[in-house]
C-alpha cells in the first residue's frame, strides 16, 4: 500500500491530495460566479496557504496579493492551454491591480525538496506561532488584521504572515543557507507521510532566529464554518 500524503495547511487539513483538490474545486472554484471575488474567510485562508506551498509563490505574490477571484482559465497568458472554453480557474489580483492565473492543483501536488523544506520550516516554528497568538489574546482585545472585526476567542483566530509572506520568508532563509538543497531534513514516518524537521541543530536554530528577526505575523479571524 502506498504512502498517503495528507495536505496539512494552517487553515484546514485534508487526508489526501485528492480530498484537498476536490474541496477547493467544489467549495471555491465552482461556488463563486465568474469574476466574483472570493470572500469567505476560510476560503481565503486556504488559498493563501496553498499559494505559500507553491514553488512559484514568490513570483505569483509579487508586490502582494489583494484578493482571489474566479475567471475563465482560457483568459490566462503565456502557455497554450488545452482547456474547455468554459473552464474556470482561480485567479490572483495583486495590490497594484495586476492579475495572474494560478493553478491550485499544482500547489496541492507540489513535490520535491522545496515543498518538503517549507513543511519542515513551518513545523519547526509551530510553538512560536502558537505563542504569538496566545500572547496577543493575553494582552487584551484582538482585532482581525484584515477586516478589523473583534475576534471573540483564541480558537477563532489564526496566524498569517504579511510583508514578507510565508513564501517570501522561507525563500529568504533558503537563500541565506545557499539554496533549498542545502537544508537537510529528517524523514517523515508511517503510512501517512508526516513532515520532518531540520536535521542540523545549528540550522534549526538559525531558522528560528531568522523567523524572529524577519517575520511579521498577524492575527486574522477564522471562518465561522
Write up this protein:
By secondary structure, this protein is α+β, with helices and mostly antiparallel strands. It is built from eight helices and seven strands. The chain has helices at 17-29, 41-53, 57-61, 104-108, 113-124, 126-138, 166-176, 201-214; strands spanning 7-8, 13-14, 65-72, 88-94, 99-102, 157-161, 217-221. Strands 3-4-5 form a three-stranded antiparallel beta sheet, with no helix packed on it. A two-stranded antiparallel ribbon has the order 1-2. Strand 1 and strand 2 form a beta hairpin. The protein starts with 6 loop residues before the first strand and ends with a strand. The model is unreliable at 189-194 (pLDDT under 50).
- The average pLDDT score comes to 84
The dominant shape is globular
For the sheet with most strands, the description reads: 3 strands, antiparallel
**Unreliable stretches, pLDDT < 50, 5 or more residues?**
189-194
Strands, total number: 7
Provide a brief overview of the structure.
The protein is α+β, with helices and mostly antiparallel strands. The protein is built from eight helices and seven strands; from the N terminus they run E-E-H-H-H-E-E-E-H-H-H-E-H-H-E.
Task: Furnish the topology, listing elements before pairings.
Blueprint: E1 7-8, E2 13-14, H1 17-29, H2 41-53, H3 57-61, E3 65-72, E4 88-94, E5 99-102, H4 104-108, H5 113-124, H6 126-138, E6 157-161, H7 166-176, H8 201-214, E7 217-221
Antiparallel strand pairs: 1-2, 3-4, 4-5, 6-7
Amino acid at each position: 500500500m502506498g504512502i498517503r500524503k495528507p495536505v496539512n495547511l494552517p487553515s484546514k487539513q485534508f487526508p489526501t491530495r485528492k480530498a484537498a483538490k476536490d474541496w477547493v474545486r467544489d467549495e471555491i472554484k465552482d461556488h463563486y460566479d465568474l469574476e466574483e471575488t472570493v470572500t469567505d474567510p476560510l476560503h481565503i485562508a486556504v488559498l493563501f496557504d496553498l499559494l505559500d506551498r507553491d514553488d512559484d509563490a514568490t513570483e505569483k505574490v509579487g508586490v502582494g496579493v489583494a484578493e482571489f477571484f474566479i475567471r475563465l482559465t482560457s483568459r490566462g497568458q503565456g502557455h497554450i492551454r488545452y482547456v474547455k472554453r468554459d473552464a474556470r480557474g482561480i485567479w490572483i489580483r495583486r495590490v497594484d491591480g495586476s492579475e495572474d492565473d494560478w493553478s491550485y492543483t499544482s500547489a496541492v501536488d507540489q513535490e520535491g525538496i522545496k515543498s518538503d523544506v517549507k513543511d519542515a520550516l513551518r513545523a519547526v516554528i509551530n510553538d512560536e506561532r502558537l505563542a504569538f497568538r496566545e500572547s496577543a489574546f493575553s494582552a487584551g482585545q484582538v482585532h482581525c488584521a484584515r477586516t478589523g472585526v473583534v475576534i471573540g476567542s483564541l480558537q477563532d483566530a489564526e496566524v498569517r504572515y504579511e510583508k514578507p509572506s510565508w513564501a517570501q520568508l522561507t525563500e529568504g532563509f533558503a537563500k541565506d543557507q545557499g539554496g533549498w538543497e542545502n537544508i537537510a531534513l529528517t524523514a517523515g514516518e508511517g503510512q501517512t507521510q508526516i513532515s520532518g524537521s531540520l536535521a542540523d541543530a545549528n540550522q534549526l536554530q538559525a531558522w528560528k532566529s531568522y523567523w524572529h528577526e524577519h517575520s511579521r505575523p498577524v492575527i486574522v479571524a477564522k471562518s465561522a464554518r
